[in-house]
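Changelog note: in this version the structure field was regenerated for every chain. One regenerated record is shown below for reference.
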Amino acid sequence: MKTILLFGAGKSATCLIDYLISHAPENDWQVVVADNNLELAKSKTGSSSRAFATAINITDDSSRKDLIRKSDIVISLMPPSLHSLVAQSCLQEGKDLLTASYADGSMQGLKEEVAKKGLLFLCEMGLDPGIDHMSAMEIIHGIHARGGEITSFFSHCGGLVAPESDDNPWHYKISWNPRNIVLAGKSGAAFRKNGIVETLPYNRLFNDNRKVSVPGYGEYAWYPNRDSIAYSELYGLENTATFIRTTLRHPVFCSGWKRIADLGLTDDLVYFDSDNISYRGLTLRLTQKNAIGEETPLQKKLLQFLGLYDTAIIGRGKQTAADILQSLLETRLMLHPADKDMIIMLHEFEYLLAGITKKISSCLVVKGENGTRTAMAKTVGLPLGIAAKLVLQKKICLTGLHIPVLPEIYSPVLAELKQQGIAFQEFGE
């Protein structure tokens, strides 16, 4: 019997756990779900004889290593800051590791040792990053195989609310880790446009005039996502004039979030005594401190909806602005049990073939079933589950530190995702 160890039972784990359990009998697997909230883990494993829930303090070296030692493969859905703990223990115990998070500096620092030990550390195996890499690379390799030269590439992705559940002025509801929403984009962005590398700081990301049309769903705004330049080389597009990875939001959201960024409401370093200040008092204090201009009527409406002009005392002890904002988002932009979220991913290519300029777009739209079996949980979790199955079945035999830009990874994973109803439609020439 093979044991799959999953660290984390949060919002993105539901469909992954269901997938692993459903495939456990035929593959003779045991699935162990470890989380600091034992009741949450138990609620995800249910009554399956193939699944076991356990409590874990991920920072406890002994407990963490003991679970990893008894497993055959490890999947981590921990916050990115904790992946290094899991990765180090996987190295020490000789276990393969899969994550949905970015292959950041701490993970890159393990690259040589992972290769030396003949292990597979597969990162960025979720939605974005993950499905975006795989679906883009399938098209890129296809264009190159026909002798085409890609001149422009945009990759857009957004976790959104489905139109039928869109009932608040932000046109947004939370379907993933709320802390990541608060901190998204804080490091700014870098990309290449018309042959020129551009960098934007955080407060210049949220321009609601950058728009793209999504077939069947209308216009969405986009803002540049992190460092696109690093991926242009990984994609084999280092000479492509325009290379931009983006995040999709409703235009209204971008307008409101620009005000939040300007106010400094996402700051997670400076603490306030929230027992002696109201939400309105905090907002006015930040307005004066950051000396920003007048908000638009739309921005005021959006901040009022979040409760940032309420006169009630916050009353949460020592809190950063980011802590306070997160608590408001979790209540005011909650995804309710009957709500549906929606994932949109759109790739836009321009390329030259035999001297002729051609265009092709590839679009994915996935809707959730409800507030638990969300589109976000499906698209983050299923690629991890499929990859784990393929590794255990020795259908992926790579070693080293990888992200899914190789056909050995993306071809079988995309094929099964299609069977699961996660399929792209192509438009263009």
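Spot check on this record: The chain has two domains: 2-127+375-423, 131-367. The two ends are 49 Å apart (CA to CA).
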